[in-house]
């Protein structure tokens, strides 16, 4: 769910929306049984109160087979009613290595800042962090955060303002996870995703390598873009936003009323990138090939046309020449692989789930 908060925290004018995609675009959870105490969270919908068909969280299954793409899709970024950018994200599971991975790309353009972001991240089957590399290119200036994990610690190397710094190893609490994997971690809980549950957690924000507390409250079930979804009220890094997630953990949309920023999963690449250039070189360097963005519930539901179809002509591919050297060096980087044997943390540790049913 590497997402909503990232976009919103980054640019006050576009300021904080993409963490939800990361919850695409979001994280270690705590599931508890107390009523949210913010006073801002409405009571969970009573049985029969919602007209929408109630989605049912899937039963727990064994890990997918090697090479399975769990999700891949393009989302458009909106500032009010203005289309200011797009993201593309892929989640995969490698059954041989027992690892989850995600790759993420974001691009915004005027009237927002001209920004490019990318992320490559890996986690174990129970979502303990392995490594990640986050990259931002704003006004031609690179910012890179490269993190590796082992023995319960995190080591971050950061390139900022042309200076590379390796920070001292930091011990991370059991149950800590990368913010981008929040949705999948919620699905791994005993009750999976359920209306009335509040998930309290500590997650690492990939864009700065720091640990923050967060909360996700499953308020209700409702239809979004014709799909059954859970409406989730999120707070992370001091930013509040709403996300709509399917029972399979796919984020369909996000919204931050305070920031005026929202994201919507698009049925195809054409709709997500309309009027904007698509740098096929950068996407190929990051993903291995240009993503088609068809492995998601919305695309299947709407039968969105994949890249290469007759509608592909509307995609504005930028020239196939190599991008500027600085961009190329930034976007073709891979996460660190140097790490020691990780400490085992029992699944669910660090996660508190609270239910509000019957209260």
Give a written overview of the molecule.
The protein has 359 residues and is mainly beta. It has one domain. It has helices at residues 4-10, 19-22, 182-187, 269-272, 280-287, 297-302, 325-331; strands at residues 29-32, 68-79, 82-94, 99-108, 115-124, 129-138, 141-150, 153-160, 163-166, 170-171, 177-178, 197-205, 210-224, 227-236, 239-245, 251-256, 261-265, 277-278, 316-317, 352-355. The chain is globular and about 45 Å long.
Summarize this structure as a short list of keywords or feature phrases:
18-stranded mixed β-sheet; 359 residues; mainly beta; two-stranded parallel ribbon; globular; 12% helix
Question: Quick recap of the structure?
Answer:
The chain has one domain (3-36, 67-340). It contains 7 helices and 20 strands.
């Amino acid at each position: 769910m590497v997402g909503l908060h990232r976009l919103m925290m980054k640019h006050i004018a576009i300021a904080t929306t993409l963490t939800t995609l990361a919850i695409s675009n979001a994280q270690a959870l705590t599931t508890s049984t107390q009523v949210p105490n913010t006073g801002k969270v409405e009571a969970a919908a009573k049985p029969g109160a919602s007209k929408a068909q109630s989605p049912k969280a899937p039963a727990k299954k064994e890990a997918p087979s090697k090479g399975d793409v769990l999700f891949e899709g393009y989302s458009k970024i909106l500032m009010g009613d203005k289309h200011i950018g797009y993201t593309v994200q892929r989640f995969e599971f490698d059954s041989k290595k027992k690892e989850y991975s995600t790759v993420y790309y974001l691009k915004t353009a005027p009237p927002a800042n001209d920004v490019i972001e990318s992320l490559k991240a890996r986690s174990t089957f129970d979502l303990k962090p392995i490594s990640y590399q986050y990259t931002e290119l704003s006004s031609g200036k690179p910012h890179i955060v490269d993190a590796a994990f082992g023995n319960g610690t995190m080591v971050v190397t950061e390139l900022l303002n042309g200076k590379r710094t390796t920070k001292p190893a930091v011990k991370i609490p059991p149950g800590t996870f990368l913010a981008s994997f929040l949705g999948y971690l919620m699905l791994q809980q005993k009750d999976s995703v359920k209306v009335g549950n509040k998930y309290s957690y500590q997650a690492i924000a990939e864009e700065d390598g720091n640990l923050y507390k967060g909360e996700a409250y499953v308020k209700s079930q409702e239809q979004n873009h014709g799909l059954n979804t859970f409406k989730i009220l999120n707070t992370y890094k001091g930013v509040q936003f709403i996300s709509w997630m399917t029972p399979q953990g796919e984020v369909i949309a996000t919204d931050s009323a305070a920031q005026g920023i929202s994201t919507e999963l698009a049925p195809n690449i054409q709709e997500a990138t309309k009027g904007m250039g698509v740098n096929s070189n950068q996407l190929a360097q990051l993903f291995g090939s240009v993503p088609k963005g068809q492995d998601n519930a919305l695309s299947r539901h709407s039968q969105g046309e994949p890249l290469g179809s007759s509608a592909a002509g509307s995609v504005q591919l930028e020239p196939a020449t190599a991008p500027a050297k600085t961009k190329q060096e930034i976007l073709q980087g891979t996460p660190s692989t140097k790490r020691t044997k990780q400490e085992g943390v029992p699944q669910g540790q660090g996660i508190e789930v609270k239910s509000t049913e019957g209260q």
